[in-house]
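ok new one. same drill as before - structure tokens go in, u give me an amino acid for every spot. 361 of them this time. try not to just spam alanines like last time pls lmao
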């Protein structure tokens, strides 16, 4: 915290995508700096390159640093962690850009581990390019789980009207059925329930669970995962005190707006949850990683190479990602304080002792 305002680390992502454009546009209104202190991990050279391409951005007040401890409030702090000869080619997937994205991410995570950042917002990356450069993970989520030693995690897509998590993330669709188990679904429901309470301030979260097959299998006619795996998981989670409901057929669930009756929805696989989410909340959607000891969000879009460098990128998802991260950060502080106070209320006074022995009443 600087002047009681959160320090928000923002990684550049792939420098050839729209990452810098949405970052600059998001931070371009000076009033936003009243709420937090941003630290952009990347290159002041690339930042300046994209700044010149943007026409409707107010004068940005930047401050170049080499250490996050030098960050100043009410400034767009740029932490230079890339070589001076870094090169940018908007719209092109390139090895150099992938390596730069990895370097910026590693630098931000290192500072996060030292407690120098309060929250982390990650810019969009090109997963294929990073994989070729030895990144070793299918995305930010898996990388951060490894870095912070989290036992489990789930991706929760967040907007003002909708929260969607997934049981299986970045895996081939063909692998989804054999990956689904009752235990895995229950674990995700527990994680979601805890996150909704601690991260979003929901007192008694209600979670809808989607089926896997069309029409939830039609009673086993076109698949039995609902009867054999999903429904038993919902029932057991309910017995453990989680307000879980379902399974629901995804098409009718989203088409009829039934998601509005719940605090969150658990989908079985990536596109089952993210396709309707992005259709309903693309401009303001946020990707949040639940289950980590840190707060991490990102915009819900990718590098969008096709529009990079054209001043076409919409910053609203990046703005939402920043404010969502700050809200979650503050919710956690309030929740943990409340839990600590409750624990104090339940503490049993130590018995009076005489010569080291407890007195018997």
């Amino acid at each position: 915290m600087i002047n009681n305002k959160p320090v928000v680390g923002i990684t550049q992502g792939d420098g050839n995508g729209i990452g810098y454009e949405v970052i600059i546009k998001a931070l371009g209104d000076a009033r936003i700096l009243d709420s937090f202190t941003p630290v952009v991990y990347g290159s002041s050279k690339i930042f300046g390159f994209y700044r010149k391409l943007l026409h409707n951005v107010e004068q940005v007040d930047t401050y170049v640093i080499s250490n996050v401890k030098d960050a100043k409030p009410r400034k767009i702090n740029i932490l230079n962690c890339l070589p001076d000869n870094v090169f940018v080619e908007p719209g092109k997937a390139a090895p150099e850009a992938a390596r730069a994205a990895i370097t910026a991410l590693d630098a931000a995570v290192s500072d996060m581990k030292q407690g120098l950042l309060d929250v982390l917002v990650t810019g969009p990356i090109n997963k294929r390019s990073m994989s070729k450069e030895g990144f070793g993970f299918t995305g930010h989520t898996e990388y951060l789980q490894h870095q912070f030693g989290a036992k489990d995690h789930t991706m929760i897509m967040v907007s003002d009207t909708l929260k969607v998590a997934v049981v299986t993330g970045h895996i081939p669709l063909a692998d989804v059925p054999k990956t689904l188990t009752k235990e895995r679904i229950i674990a995700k429901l527990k994680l979601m329930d805890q996150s909704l309470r601690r991260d979003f301030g929901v007192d008694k979260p209600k979670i809808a669970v989607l089926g896997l097959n069309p029409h939830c299998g039609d009673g086993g006619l076109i698949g039995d995962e609902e009867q054999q795996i999903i429904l038993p998981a919902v029932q057991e989670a309910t017995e453990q005190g989680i307000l879980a409901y379902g399974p629901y057929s995804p098409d009718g669930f989203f088409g009829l707006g039934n998601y509005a009756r719940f605090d969150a929805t658990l989908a079985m696989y990536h596109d089952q949850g993210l396709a309707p989410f992005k259709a309903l909340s693309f401009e303001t959607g946020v990707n949040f990683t639940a289950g980590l000891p840190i707060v991490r969000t990102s915009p819900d879009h990718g590098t969008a190479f096709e529009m990079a460098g054209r001043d076409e990128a919409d910053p609203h998802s990046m703005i939402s990602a920043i404010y969502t991260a700050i809200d979650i950060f503050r919710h956690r502080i309030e929740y943990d304080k409340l839990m600590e106070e409750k624990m104090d209320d339940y503490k049993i006074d130590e018995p009076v002792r005489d010569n080291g022995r407890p007195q018997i009443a």
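The first helix runs from residue 19 to 27. and btw The chain is about 35% helix and 15% strand.
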